[in-house]
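## Example pair
The file below holds two records. Each record gives the amino-acid sequence first, followed by its structure token line.
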Amino acid sequence: MAQHNQFTLLFKRRFLPLFLSLTSATFNDNIFKNSLLVMLAFRLSEAKADALINLATGFYILPYFLFSVTAGQLADKYDKSQIIRILKLAEIFIVILGVYGLIYNNQAINFIVLFLLATHTAIFSPVRYAILPQHLKRRELMGGNGLAQMGSFAGMLSGTIIGTLLAGYTNPGQPGLKELGATMTVVAVLGYLVSRRVPPAPAPAPDLRIDWNPVSQAWRILQLTAKNPSVFYAILACSWFWLVSATYLVQVPSLTKNVLGASEPVITTILCCLSIGVAAGSLMCETLSRGRITFGIVPIGALGITLAGLGLGITTAQFQTLSGASLSEYLRSDGAYAVLIYTAFLGISGGIFIVPLYTIMQDRTDRTVRAQVLSLNNVMNALFTTVITLINIFILDAVKIAIPQLFILMALINFAVMALLFYKLPEFIVHLLVWLSSHLFARTTYGQLKQIPQKGAALLICNDTVRLAPLLLIDTLQRPIRFILPQCFYQAPLIHFIFKNYNVAPIVYGPSRDKAKFSAEICQALEEGELMCLFPTQDRRNSAFIDIEKQLKIALKDTSAPIIPLVLQGLHNEASENHDSSRFSLIPKVHISAGQPITAKDINDSTFAKKYFNKR
């Protein structure tokens, strides 16, 4: 159960072709979109340019409403690798048409291509997220999503920079546009060739009947998703993230020109900091979560977004406006680096926030509707982005609020919305407490856990009854655990809150517990293939434990499930007990390991009982 290194996926056929296909598609999407917007801004009058830019934005968002839910159905009905190859082949022809439109300045063709590229992305998105659980192991999902998110932003960043630079310094027919067109075409062709190496991903629902009405289908999937609170709230949180991102991202050009008083290269620099930050935060998720699929780091990302937004708003509000400053002139001004640092911090926090949400959606959705649920997420993202864009236009134009004030307001609203979200789904807080227990309250290491099966029933018997121990096990082991806890243990307020909202309810024993029901509950859990973990009471002479031992013997005598001793070393701070001050630490270092599996009769062995059940 050694920790997985996400970068090894870049050398696997089951991931690398998909990663390159995704990155190339994002690159072409953004290089064309930004080239078109730059050309509209610099070649037309301000009034006409603003009208066409707004029209272009509408053209780009519309396909997400029209085609996302249909794309999700297609991805569940047909082999996803074939859909990817068809999309990548279509991308070549779309790009060639786009090159013609750019070079000959044909706005009708340009808008058609923009619509087609947005349609391409709207169809590709649920396919690429739904295919990952089919090609990756469960413990690889967090890292795989982090890499995919990093690839998306790498393609977005490089496409934005190249498209802006090449289109910004050319006229129709000049070599710069031809080079831009050649770049797009080569990337599209290479993307198609790479997509042919994506392994097959058989359809999970080949008999699915396609509902071509996007409204009725979206409503049906929304009702289905609402029955799964963790996925439903993950979608809402994800959509809220894109709402917040749109607020900050869209204002960067105006912020740079009107508040900072800087030139176009500063816009590119700020966007680079944001994109690099998101990519870095996405990659950090694997390490922070240890590959576990958890909500635990989402509140950390949410808090980071609020702090970064406040810092960015306050810093820009106090910034002494320059006058058309170059990049070097801007960097010499007070507060310049603070703006870039807060922007990067905003991106890092966003990456930490968004990757676990996509992973939760993939992991907790039935495979037969996974792509459809992910397509609903696309629709919600587009809806939230559209709504906040209209609200921001009203706030900035009608209310006359300044951009720094808008940033501060959005940061405060983000804090309030996240608090409400975590209140509605306490699992966010439960996972955070579990994460903190293993990263702040103890330094946890582990080894020799291969004895614990990845599937099927097993009973772990823990040698420690410190209340922190179950939280460390939840954070360390990859599988959901059903704990068998003493009643006095479970009644502790924090432990009670955590297990009340943990996705696997514990089995609690004590003097008042019905013995027959207790035994039946254990037998049923083992028959259903659950991983269980027993925490004995502190005193084996306790009558409740004597009864529990008898019931365990009854429950386990006919089972073939392995019984595995589990050792947690360090929770009692042995260094302090041995008066070795040089080894003493306020944060204990806890090592978790598993012994060799035993049989039911060994539970009553005197040596085993003394080691695991006779406590101080």
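Second record, same layout:
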Amino acid sequence: MIKVLIKSVREYKLASILSPVFVALEVVLECLIPFVISKLVNAIDVTAGNVIKMSEIWMYGGILVAMAFVSLGCGALAGAFCAKASAGFAKNLRKDLYYKVQDFSFENIDKFSTPSLVTRMTTDVTNVQFAYMMIIRTAVRSPLMMIFSLVMTFVMGGSLGWIFVAVIPPLAFLLFFIMKKAMPLFHRVFKKYDNLNESIQENIRGMRVVKSYVREDYEKQKFDNAATDVQMDFTKAERILAWNHPIMQFFFYGVLSAVLFLGSYFILKSNGATSVGEVSQLVVYGMQILMSLMMFSMVFAMIVMSIESARRICEILGEESTITSPENAVTEVENGDIDFSDVSFKYSAAAERYALADVDLHIKSGETIGIIGGTGSSKTTLVNLISRLYDATEGAVSVGGRNVKEYDLTALRNSVAVVLQKNELFSGTIKENLRWGDPNATDEELIEACKLAQADEFIQGFPNGYDTFIEQGGANVSGGQKQRLCIARALLKKPKVLILDDSTSAVDTHTDALIRKAFREYIPQTTKIIIAQRTSSVEDADRIVIMDGGKINAIGTHKELLGTNPIYTEVYTTQNKKSNDDAMVGGGDNE
């Protein structure tokens, strides 16, 4: 786990090294200061018949001031380098996680879930950042302070130093016991954080539905339940960690009392061989040892909390995408030919049934293929295999005469444009959204693509035209407008294969017909696959594929299927019973 995380330090290695170096220098100086103070105390101690020497007082006083300033400088530099290293490490860690997720296949994302990925890139990284900050500073300072102070207790106090040695084993045992009890609870807590984030994300995304059904109270209760669940486990874990402080206090005051008692005893017994200055500074060293142990207990608590976060981060960083480009990958797609040869697919190896089974389908370049089927008939699953959003479990999918697994992923996906069922627009202008299809597209090309997608007219109606700002998720445009913008964006890729996954469902039938007409006239060489619920969207296709239960039920033209295929006939008949009502609908969007 450490090997995986340490890779994200990168350019902050120097700061990560300099921070503990300056901490070590600071600790050395702090441990020498009491030694010099004891010399100063002895120089002004007249109880033993000593003569006060001002030269010694000035010398030791000057040394103390110089050491204090140098110690202060070392502490400040250690803090600055620590802040730079920990913040930089967190930045790199978030970037590594984000870049890793970008390479994930849909299967990888399904495995972790979106809320869990968000939690790992935010809460978990913050926990690891704090732990790293404490490790390169406090975790270095504590043991060094303890070791140097322990050595000085033997130098100045002789056998009294064994008091501090005797404290360490029972304290270490108690800290280990606390960690063993707290770790399983933190493991559970972070899983519940995922559930909490999922509840928040789902509520915000569906806020319009929540308000329209007046379900605010229900959502509040659901959130309260999730938050309470997190609170209960976190409280249990924190209650266990809270034992750190009283345990440390117990040992702190116990050892302090022992040192004062035995130190006083040795002063009286030694008849001046042990000085007041030595015993007073022995107490100071004892306090430093115990304070270092208390600081270590704080580091320990933070590390216990962050271990689970680190494990969850390493899960992402160690996950390999299930879909990658092969060596010596093909970088050019010849044409839009598509072949499904005995293809079967299921979403996980443990799944009991196949989502697709025994699919044989051959599409020539430039053909227009319609796909119709009931909900859950695996229409979307079928087309997802073309651009390798998923890989076939059995059989082979080919594009341009080659197995899709032979292609470079970027080359394949640039040649296969998919307008997904759930359309996504991003914050930015219309131009910026369209240029996702082609970053180098000219304004003229943008306008041409929008005309094909029947989007130019409504864009020109906006006050700022193509510079109109699109809010997050396309909240300020209608469903039909969003769909047409997404179609235009896909057309800018100039793909060999264009897949429309129910992506004209929010536009009226007249606009839908205009879009299909433009496709026939202006991109005849592009293979077009149209998934639709309306038979009117596919009835002029070269062939129509009927999907049922993950299998191809029938293939044919509109005329061939109408009256001979019960599924297609039923859908067509049901929809056309309302044809008179539909004809009365104007040219607006059906949202």
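Notes on the second record: The two ends are 49 Å apart (CA to CA). Residues 367-388+414-581 form a domain with the Rossmann fold fold (CATH 3.40.50.300).
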